[in-house]
Fold this protein.
Amino acid sequence: MDINIAAEGERLYRSLIAEITACNWPAVDAMFAPGFQSAHADGARDRATEIQTIMDEKIADCILSNFKVTQSGNCLVVTHTQSVVETIDGKRLPGQSSPRLTVWTKNQGNWQMVALANLRVI
């Protein structure tokens, strides 16, 4: 079955943000693949550290735009621009537009994120 990769890639990331905003932590946890890794201005994070960081941050006013999606094998590579007001490590960061990149793979029939690059300067 063919999918519209552009629509699917955007849907995946928007779904992740919706679940984070709703504090639906079981759904958020299910979206992260085993072996997940992320890169941020302050260093790399493993799956458990990334999920805990997300649970500790307070997100408000998230604006997503400029989605671009490509497919490589069973992976979707999704880039976009994100502007979000958030609290990280107790520090409130203003809404600032920055690029993001996620890589999603099918795992037992469900899409899961295997990598994330957050290019926002903290």
Remarks:
- Residues 5-118 form a domain with the Nuclear Transport Factor 2; Chain: A, fold (CATH 3.10.450.50).
- The longest helix spans residues 5-21.
- The chain has a mean pLDDT of 90.
